[in-house]
Amino acid sequence: MRAIAYTKTGDSSVLHLVERESAEPGAGEVRVRIAVSGVNPTDWKARAGARPGQAAPFDEVVPNQDGAGVIDAVGAGLAGFAVGDRVWAYLAAHERPTGTAQQFAVLSAEHVVPLPDAASFDVGASLGVPAMTAHRALTVAEHGPSRLGPGALDGRTVLVAGGAGAVGHAAIQLARWSGATVITTVSSPEKAALATAAGAHHVVNYRTDDAASAIRALAPHGVDQVVEVSPARNADLNASVISNHGTIAVYATDGGAEMAIDVRRHFALNVRYQFLLLYTVGEDALSAAAEDIGRALADGALPVGEDAGLPITRFPLERTAEAHDAVEAGAVGKVLIDVDPDLA
Q: DSSP for 238-306?
């Protein structure tokens, strides 16, 4: 089989196409024939490491956490999976050398989830990190639900920062599916069109509008939940629009790694700041997210593609380095790698 691998950290030039025999799944594992691999910022950051030239965490690492395909083999004694099952995978390379940029990936079964027949492999490969991060951000509010589904967010207003990004896109879709009124901020008319296509009820261009005034006009009592990609840059805006007992869920540090907040202002509103990272959130939260995302998929609530607000940029497996570079450069939408086009 063909795989992309690296043995030391650095820029995308450390990624090489290799040929190897596929491995057999062990206890608690399945082997998945990967159709499509998804690329996220975490993938190029893991490959880059703290500094170039460091040894990889394993002798050889296959990158990319997310992907979709068909189960090819099942470890002995493992129930619940069968050869031929369509699946999507998440955190495939977390503390393992087995990312999805390879034709056959041996994966931990607890991070492999059924993919409905109606959902494409593109959809499956676009879930993982973005959708599960969005799920967590929407389920940490003080008086909000711990699970998502139709009606779970009825009566609540959710503000999604950066609605044209992959996590923002998934947050809009999941919040709308769960009954919330969704407001999102974007930086251009083109991104506004994408956020609207994703399902946002209201879109605010923070570069041309007075964002705080516009959001307050839409939500006079404040927004209940914020899905935040840029906490430092948006700290003042969030303080201006958050409701009493509101929650600001932070999943990234775009725009600065440190932020300053007015403590007394947040005291008065009983505001909760909730930080989140999938790698350390715990298996219970991951499993809950996977189950709810599965129900959303069954309802057709998580489409991808330009018409759904998430344009797709594609690369073949041998150009995985270019795919990583595209994500690092801030490609709008989702970057996918066609690992096995015969499965598409």
A: HHHHEEEEEEEEE---TT-S-----HHHHHHHT-EEEE--GGGS-HHHHHHHHHHHHHHHHTT----BG
pLDDT digits (tens, 9 = 90+) for 207-220: 999 999 999 999 99
CA dist 296 and 290 (Å) reads 10
Stated length of the chain: 344
Rounded Cα gap, residues 286 and 132, in angstroms: 7
In sequence order, what E strands does the chain have?
2-5, 16-19, 29-39, 66-74, 86-89, 104-108, 112-114, 157-161, 181-186, 202-205, 223-228, 242-250, 272-275, 312-316, 334-338
How much is the pTM? 0.96
Alpha-carbon span 262 to 241, nearest angstrom? 14
Q: From the centroid of its chain, how far is CA 95?
A: 18
Residue 169, φ and ψ in degrees, nearest 5: -60, -50
What are the phi and psi torsion angles at 7 (to 5°)? -115, -10
Neighbour count for residue 200 (Cβ, 10 Å): 29
Question: Measured between alpha carbons, how far is 121 from 251 in angstroms, rounded to an integer?
Answer: 25
pLDDT digits (tens, 9 = 90+) for 132-190: 999 999 999 998 899 999 999 999 999 999 999 999 999 999 999 999 999 999 999 99
